[in-house]
Amino acid sequence: MIRLVLGLLAATAISVTVASCSSTEAVSSASTEEAVDTQWLPQADTPSGVATEVPIERGALTRFLTTFAYREFVSEPEQHPGRGPHAAAGSPVRTWFSPSLAQAMEADEETFPVGAAAVKEMWSEGGELLGWAVEVKTDLGRGGGSWFWFEMVGTDPATAEIYGGGNDVPGCVGCHTQGTDWVISDLPL
User: Which of 31, 41, 125, 151 is at a distance of 20 to 30 A from 163, taking alpha carbons?
Assistant: First the structure.
């Protein structure tokens, strides 16, 4: 019954998200009693034991981000104005693509391999790193449920606001439907 109610709420959130593609509320890990914006709640199970190029366990993922380990990946050539909720008012962003994702994008593949990942840095106009958005392909096929979604606003894991953190997060999927297999990048690699 709870899953059905969450599913109905998620469907509503998807339609709202597609229309606005933004939100100001984060999923709080501090309290389950708070009102939670359901568009950031995962709607599909995240597979376990999947080999990925970016870790999906929260502690390992935040360490991966805060140590800039992803900067060994292929990146967009430079920062550019962001779209959607990743950066308010088009503040600069830059995305880094894991090796398998970069290879698949260069080959113009329509569906990306399991384990592929993208890490988006979000910056202020003044040059301060604001946080990251991450997507990791965890399952075969297409669709938002085949991707793990995570966004961290803030660079200190102890105080950052966390959005998503699982598969098929309506607030992420709503904007990413316009991308090839849910990856959005207009710039050549």
Answer: 125
54-69 pLDDT tens trace: 999 999 999 999 999 9
CB 96, CB 118: distance < 8 Å: yes
Q: Distance (Å, rounded) from C-alpha 183 to C-alpha 178?
A: 8
Query: Rounded to whole angstroms, what are the CA distances from 46 to 107, 118, 127?
Result: 27, 17, 34
Pairing of strands 74-75, 80-81: unpaired
Query: Containing H/E element for 19?
Result: helix 2-20
How does pLDDT run across 20-40, given as a tens digit for each residue? 343 334 444 444 445 678 888
Angstrom distance (rounded) from CA 157 to CA 76 = 25
Beta carbons of 66 and 58 less than 8 angstroms apart: no
pLDDT class of 87 with cuts at 50, 70, 90: low
DSSP H/E element including 169? none
| 73/99 Cα distance (integer angstroms) | 6
